[in-house]
## 1
Amino acid sequence: MEISYDKIAPKICDCHVHYGQFREDNYEPKQIIKWFDELGIGKVGIMPVGTTWASDFNRDQKIMASLPTARFVPYLWVSPEMVDTDPTLKLYDTLNYKVMKIHAYAIKEWDKLPDKISTVIEVARNKKVPVMFHTGGWRGSNAIQFYKFCREYPEVTFILAHGKPISQTLTVLKGAKNAYADSSFMSNESIKLICDAGLSHRILFGTDFPIMKTFWPEINLLDWYRNNVIELIEKFSERDFMVWANENFYKLILRS
Ligand SMILES: [Zn+2]
């Protein structure tokens, strides 16, 4: 059966998208708006890139306010300094964010600050928003590092962005019902391992768009995106994909 991308696109929610400076590339918010207009994606969970761009709440709030609210869902990029400035994190409520992101690869000191991670999680619990952890890249941001938090806070939803390494991700998903993995930069082999373990319903569709362009400068981003969607549906099923790309996003991220 021929898959019609255009028919599916408005129902798709991408839980992992960035704007900002990544290495040599500056992904302007205006350009992100344009790309998603062309792609016709329904909902886009968006956050700054954190690796070479120092977090700056005021700048991010301004940028988020310029994004069309019907499509873009703001996430709060949390740094340890933001917790120091206001441990209640109420200062950041004006963003009306739907996910809190902790990136222990971009900010390696998180690894030594489990109490501050707990502070963030407790705010997330009160606000009923998920906590997204970047996973992979080094010991301090590998999926297993976050297992204890998933177990300690069963009422909080956790999203293991990228689900890396996959063996550890499977351990966390099996041991904590409140843990999910997003599919950004996840290989089809890893997605298949999650499905084979009977955990397909614990995947969220995410892409990390547009930073694949930095890794693979020769790609056409819009073609890449459409092909990614079609490939996932072909390799798995439209039913599975719609759970990842629609049901789980509404259930976990847009619930508040
Ligand atoms: Zn990312």
## 2
Amino acid sequence: MDLVGYDFPQLEISLDEYALPGPVLDIGGGGEGVIGQLLGWDVIAIDHRLDELLETPDGHDKVMMDARRLGFSGQFFPTLTAFFSLMYIPKREDQITVFAEAQRVLQPGGSFHLWDVTLPAEPLEGSDYFVVSLRYGIRGKDAGHGLWDALAGREAGCSSLHRSGGKGGIDLCSVGYAGPLFLS
Ligand SMILES: C[S@@+](CC[C@H](N)C(=O)[O-])C[C@H]1O[C@@H](n2cnc3c(N)ncnc32)[C@H](O)[C@@H]1O
């Protein structure tokens, strides 16, 4: 059986403007560990997959942990980030749990910086999976990766994250196609 994919337009994001106060908790920070590359030892990256954490470059802390059960006591972090990771938490109930956990460990007045994709309903109809081709720049270094996943049973996308964020006790301040999204 042939599967049908939906290709998002290429995304380009420059990250140099993000001088975020630490310690920064980076949720789903395995893979290329982009936020760790950006902010170094200010970052604790958590990911529930050891293989993803082992892939990331050294230079920041890494902990194997499920974002639905953060093993930190309350209100510790001034900054939370999720760089194209919540799109891999497709179920609404899990997204709500993650936002509630984020709220629990975020300092009052802190901020949650979230980059994600908007999954528009219409063009995706009839597609089995989506592909996002992402290029990001850090201090003049240009890098990139491809993100893809199956669409079956998926409730991701800004509007879904918006609803989940609200239920998890976090208000989304602004929403933009393909992020970044800002939560506080
Ligand atoms: C596409 S990667 C994110 C890219 C990464 N932020 C980077 O900088 O390269 C998505 C990550 O989210 C992680 N993830 C998915 N569900 C998770 C969960 N419940 N808890 C922690 N990490 C999760 C996956 O293991 C994967 O490493």
